[in-house]
Design brief:
Oligomer: homotrimer
Order of helices and strands of chain A: HEHEHEHEHEHEEHEEEHHHHE
Helix content of chain A: 40-55%
Distance between the termini of chain A: 17 Å
CATH topology of chain A: UDP-N-acetylmuramoyl-L-alanine:D-glutamate ligase
CATH class of chain A: Alpha Beta
Number of strands of chain A: 11
Strand content of chain A: 15-25%
Number of helices of chain A: 11
């Protein structure tokens, strides 16, 4: 099956099966990623208490960990939920928001990837580079570095870690250490709304709930979200508030045929 | 006075008196329920710290408790605020989000209803059924069961608990153990946006701030919210982002005459 | 340089330099103020953990403290971050949400202003009056008092505290104890959306990142936000959901020429 066809089929499958995406995520985007989950066709649950995360993840199609507004107890909940997810074969997706900006973020992210088997890490160029031990520059939670060879970063980090690595930016790069994909979908307007990176991670979470290959799940999530972003930008005229609303609309209205027509993926 | 007239009068009263609705609620919908409160014509306050909840509830027209993203300390704050509200005759509305999904949720919800006198419990079919000791199936925080006799569930649970029970779904059911109302307002688009259940609870909170009969308050809140949902759906064309924006618009623009014309309530 | 010209120049400077605005803020508006920051042209970071705030503030153009959903540990983080900001000459902006409503809020706000050098305090009439030791009436987090002489409140409190004081309302008042500005920009629709006060504080934070005079920064932020509110109201027709979206659009599309044409500031 060609990549596009597999993504289109996975999107249909998400909508038919409505997997539950368990998020342990940040307070800035919690509402946004819940709505993005619904628009994709899955069901969101946000549950963070140490007392319930292991039980909640038992119902989940995937577990999504995001350290955007972390604190030590939340990291403990993430690790406990992640270990349980590993035990139950629930794929875990990790978004290392702002790693490198503070010791707490760097140490917590490293602890999470050392204690939990992660199917996909999704971050911007700086986050992924820093987490993988490459160079990277970060300003708060924004990547500001100039990165010469992100394909190598993704591939090497994937090989080191055993996770699929997804780096989002102007062009998205995904590698599982063997395969490499470059995704040209998306629009600059996505950077005008907070939490679109976190939503991209959620999309990967949706695809991994119906797709056993993490590489394909990451590619599927990013193509789908990028396409929704393009369609939203086309009707928004550089207005971020309007774009934000249109992004949910586009995502919800996206059909498998749109993937067949609009996916811009290249495997290297 | 006919039901519709009473709801219309209560809506006018909310707008004239602007009661303060004290929410101790979840992080996913906090912004949404605050905005829904403003659109209804009331004033929101979100205050959760154990150190201040008893003092804050002293200014409130109603207290709204919602366990969507609970943790043990928050449950303690809820119980302390609830007891104080009982002492001050401030009505308490309870939204048992996701009860049944985890032991933490089930135990916390049972603790809250055993220690606090609740005027109205509002939940989906699964949440209310499980909390009332009936059967129910839940997936994360979504009800997935097939429920044969929700009227009986509402009525019996109301009689057991002394609270008015409101079950929202395709048709909303409200009972105080004696009276039963079926509400046909609403639209399927409401399920495409996260937090609309929580907003429905907030609406009940708004009505109970001006209405002494919990049954009438619950009916008023659900009719009003359902009508706003219908009006929003009429201009949104299956687009969840657009619907979400239109829902706030419709709610703010709703006038008592709309209730007189559009309320679809049946008492059994 | 005339005031308008200076504001216009500062807006251009924010967009050219994209300062990082470190927020330690409330859970209700975290997403809103992050998006408002992006629309202004700056970069947001929300980081609250005691373990990371001092490190994070090192990257920041300004630090914004907001006690809307405070709890004791968060106040500790605010004070630690504030002291570090003082050490690094990073301006601190303080939004004393709901001060006066509870002892926790009043004590925490007073502790913050006594331990941290604040460049600008931004609040509504009640909050500022109460914090400054004048009379004020508050209902939850809404100002309900009738205030005869807010100019005196602002001026005296500024002289007492050494901070610039900004009181927002129908007319915004700013004083550093010596200069006084009255700002007539804004629209009543701003009160229909939760968090617009917090966004105003964020705007001041953006301007202070490029402007050394706190008085000018406060005036610049409030003029800019008021203008965005006016433009949004002009296309929203009393619909709060539509206004909310248009507010982000207007802010992002605002250019320095709009300031030159539309600023309504009067110095007394």
């Amino acid at each position: 099956m060609e990549i596009k066809e597999e993504i289109a089929a996975d999107l249909a499958k998400i909508r038919a099966t409505k997997p539950l995406l368990h998020h342990i995520t940040n307070m800035v985007v919690m509402n946004e990623t819940a709505n993005a989950t619904l628009c994709l066709g899955a069901l969101p649950v946000m549950a963070h208490a140490r007392e319930e995360v292991e039980e909640m993840v038992g119902f989940a199609g995937t577990l999504i960990l995001n350290i955007g507004t972390l604190y030590p107890e939340l990291v403990e909940s993430m690790i406990a939920a992640g270990k349980k997810a590993n035990e139950l074969n629930v794929p875990v997706i990790f978004d290392p928001v702002g790693v490198g900006a503070t010791k707490l973020r760097t140490d917590s992210a490293k602890k999470i990837i050392s204690e939990v088997n992660i199917s996909v890490v999704r971050g911007n160029a700086a986050e992924v580079s820093i987490l993988g031990g490459f160079e990277g520059k970060i300003k708060g939670v924004e990547s500001i570095g100039g990165y010469s060879n992100l394909i190598n970063v993704a591939k090497e980090f994937a090989n080191q870690s055993g996770s699929t690595i997804a780096i989002t930016g102007k062009v998205d790069i995904v590698s599982d250490g063997r395969q490499i994909a470059k995704i040209y979908n998306g629009d600059a307007m996505l950077a005008t709304v907070t939490g679109t990176g976190c939503m991209a991670t959620t999309m990967i979470g949706g695809f991994l709930a119906v797709q056993t290959d993490p590489f394909m799940g990451a590619v599927g999530g990013l193509v789908t979200f990028g396409l929704a972003g393009e369609k939203a930008a086309a009707v928004s005229g550089k207005r971020p508030g309007t774009f934000h609303v249109a992004l949910y609309d586009s995502l919800a209205l996206l059909v498998p045929e749109d993937i067949m027509k609009g996916a811009k993926v290249e495997t290297v």
